[in-house]
Amino acid sequence: MSNLPVLPVALPMAAGIALIFLRNSPSLSRAVALVANLIVLVLAAQLVETVRIDGVQVLNFGEWPAPFGIVFAVDMLSALMVLVTMVVSSATLLFATVSLDDARERTFFYPLFQFLLVGVNGSFLTGDLFNLFVWFEVLLISSYGLLALGSERYQLQETFKYLVINALSSTLFLIGVALIYSLTGTLNMADIAVKFPQISDKGSAGAVAIVFMLVFGIKGALFPVYQWLPRAYFAPPAVISGLFGGLLTKVGVYALYRVTSLFFVGNVNFVLPVLSFIAGATMLFGVLGALSQFDMKRVLSYHIISQIGYMIMGLAIFTPLALAGGVFYIIHHILVKTALFLVAGAVEATRGTTHLKRLGGIVDTSPVLTGLFFVAGLALAGAPPLSGFVAKFMLMQGGLEQHFYIMVGASVVTGFLTLFSMMKIFRYAFWSPEQVPFSGRGGHATRLVSITILVGLGIVLGLGAGFAMPYATIAAEQLIDPSAYIAAVLGSQAR
Amino acid sequence: MWGLVVASLLPFVGAALLPFLSKSRGDNCGWIASGFIVASFAAVAISTPAVLHQPGAIAFEWVPSLGLQFSIAADGLSLAFAFLITGVGSIVFTFAAAYLGPEENRRRFFCYLLIFAGAMLGVVFAANLISMFVFWELTSVSSFLLIGFWHERDASRGGALKALVITAGGGLAMLVGFILIGSIVGSYEIADIMAAREQIAAHRWATAAAMLIMLGAITKSAQFPFHSWLPSAMEAPTPVSAYLHAATMVKAGLYLVARMGPVLSLIPIWTPTLTVLGIVTMTWGSFLALRQTDLKALLAFSTISQLGLIMAMFAQNTASAATAGVFHMLNHGLFKGALFLMVGVIEHEAHTRDLTKLASLRSNMPRLFAVLVLASLSMAGIPPMGGFISKELFLEEVLQMPWPLTVIAVLGACLTVGYCLVLAIGLGLTHQDEAERKHAHDAPTALLWGPAVLVFGALLLGLVPTFLAGGLIESAAAAAIGGHVPHPHLTMFHLSPTLIVSVAAISAGAAVFRFGWMRRTPDAPKLVADRVYEAWLTGLEHNAQRLTASYMSGLLWRYVTIIVCVGIISMSALAVFVGFDASAPWGARPAQTFEYVVALIPIAAAIGAVVAPTRLAAILALGASGFSLALLFSLVGAPDLALTQIMVETVSVALFLSAFVHLPAYRKLKPRKFQPLYAAVSIAFGVGVTALLHHARGQRVGGTIADYFVENSVEKAGGHNIVNVILVDFRGLDTLGEISVLGIAALTCYALIKLRPERKRP
To answer: Which residues does chain A have within 8 Å of residue B154's beta carbon, measured at their own beta carbons?
Structure first.
């Protein structure tokens, strides 16, 4: 048993604690945070390779055997999620070091950032349902802090709504955990996966599924319970929106993938059809929401919702191809969406606004940023040969093969409208003549570097999809057939 | 084959290197870019004989597990297009090098243009449907950037967006069609698809796939009713219009129809639909062309019309029609490219392209006028130009169609002659004021030789067609029908019914021009298709706003209500459609009377908190609810839990009370009244959750992990207080997480208090 799985949680926590005490020296804080991030990034890459070669990795805390103690159980999906988390958080952090105002930097931005990573990585790694709840709480409390950091009026107002809705969803989460514990007497997810199919009352099993779909639907911003998202993500500085938009909702999506494949597919036969309906509706409502907006950050926030529809589409089809497509989509989305938010951040930093009607002429003042936005926008819309195309291609083929014509139709329409909406931003913010005289402050090269990393990865993930595909395929196979996951958690232990 | 790989890569390499090779002001950009495209032309030309004799394919893997690869193959059809792309390309690039002044961002322009050329070559050499799609969309994207090149102009941005929306939208439909075909065949390689054509035609997806692919083709080739983007695309600099929107990109749809014809023409809907669309487009386009006063708009509609003609030919999938299609396509590439470039020259020299303001080209620009006349003759289908022969071939096909189509097509031919005469005679021979004549002067040679070369090509295609392109046309047509094509007999001199029709069409066209039956209107009414597009655009945004505003209230209590209602409704649906097992016991054991009684206290307290008139009362009611829970805990045998609950309640009530001092006074904004909906929702939620948990408790399968804790607490963990052992040992990680939550909450509170936005100082 290796301790590798715990490091993506332990190191950010250590770094976060250290950073609390370094708050008065921002430059040291930046260095410590970046170095810690990069170390965990390397470890996460190692974790992915370990899982690819040796299969599911399990760590029993306190050597208590599963299902009694808490385990971290890392399959390919978990490992990939941690890796991509570390990639985008490193890029975001780099961006933050040159974008954030001094006051925010000194008021615990870096510790909160690290604690957020603790919660996110913990959620991806844990193999215990209640422990998942705990990591969710860690990431939520950090996210409240980051959202409200600065205490501007709009921020506080929206953070409060975000907080109340998440508190409600956490309560529902607890109710769900209580239901599962009542029914199966266990909290270990692999153990639940074994016992859940034995529940004879279809109603109870279905109720659990509904509660968890609702909980992760709220966290993941699915139709019809995503209303909290657009304004909350508009409120904070773009660098924080970027991290949240790219990452946080995907924790909910990940959890939905996890519980659906482990618990529900075997015993609740309405889950997948309901998810397919939700997927289509999420896509369409999200993209229409985006079309209704005239601010770059708001448009991007609504696109988070529509894109989550695609991820759920992969889950709802539940074939190896579609699930691999869904996993691919999640990773693509995290990279590209964060990049787009960071572009918005760079625009905000130089122009002081992200409202489309007040922007213009960026193509002449910062051609590199324009190019980055253009490529990232195309990738988001699914233009070939970028990352989004490969993912959507898999989803569409998977959907057509399983005769999900309506959902595929919805995904095509959404892709089309996404392209339209990205080009709307491009047309107004980048192409049109300057609306408000531009102060002339140039962009910071470091910002461009961090965006370039993400956009570059989007291109690499598209053109190099042949190399990335085996990972997504392994993840999909482990989701469809969780027996290896279950055996790794339960089987190797003396019962 | 590798020559073709090199040919397709050269433009991309050029685009990548251009920023490094060119001088700071981009003076030499055009010439460097021209060098790359000429080299690409040379590579195509050198490879042609070998490729025609020994076809082959090269594949570069992309995502093998999905069957995605960049495979390259070529036959006569691809080569015919490749010659257009690189040949016309060479001329347009060199023209543009002289045409664009130093005030333009030439580096960007040629970069985009090179990317486009490479993408276009990628489309025609692709031997895999998905790799074709990749390049197909890349042509749309580069076209978007080129149309919007003068991005300060509103019309440029609008035209670019319209072109992208229509062509990329069609492209998406096409992708779905490709996926359907790929799923039927199990491969995206065009060769495999050709081999499985019967299987495809028999599949139940066949019609859907054909329609979707057709959408891709007709949007790209600006066929009715998707033609409106092409006139708007005329906002691009003229070399772009000549190259993308006349000679090459708009022909990608034709290429697709020709390429997939052998497969898709087996599907009944394919040929009739495309024929009708093509013929209608041809006549409608030529009618609209006659009504334009802007030279570029005239040419744009003429392009739409000519594309319709070729589309109708390729749709037939017969040897003779395919021959006509390929031949006319070559002709069109040459004469239309030349015409556009000349319009560019006219605009460059006379600073207008309004037909009503231009005149007397013959005396002002005699050399340009000569070239213009020849190009117009070819477009009108008048000897000795190549256009004559290809139009004869077209009419021959048309005469065999059902009579309504024949009539429409011949009408289209008349109108075509009409607008060609407008170009040649209307521009050249009418008179003009003295004042304007003064500053008009003939076109510089640097700009004129390009169109002249193209027109010379069109002339040669009329004089010695078989010698010049016979082999290419034969092999292209053969590829387009997927079978054998007799060596084409292309000649100027022949006697047949078509000649009579042709003469009649020319005379009628002359009459149309002479008597001005189709009066040109300077403010031509807006295209219906344009109005549809604009209605779509505004309707989409408007309805999206209405829909989104209808549920995005920004009001927290509404959001919460939605969430709770979703839960209640789905649970009710579950109860109705799936049903709960009612026979199972409720709860672990029957509840005792005093438990019911104690349970009533928190309920009462909760109601009290809701109706409380002041903050203080609400807090106290909440406290009562908490303390009564502690009482319940202690009664059911969890004294330590009860103790914790008491502590928590005490501390929180105390904290609340102490914080009150600092809060502003409690104000009621409006009188509160009883809201039955919210009461019902709240009660249903509470009752539902209670019932669910109770019901679930009676369903347990086997033991719980708690049994293990009981057994091992002392023995293995060394602690007698099981709760403590669970908290710090068995599930210590949870505790760590929860402690962290508290710590982070403290940090957040500190940040909230400490960091405030700076108050604006007076």
So the answer is: 432
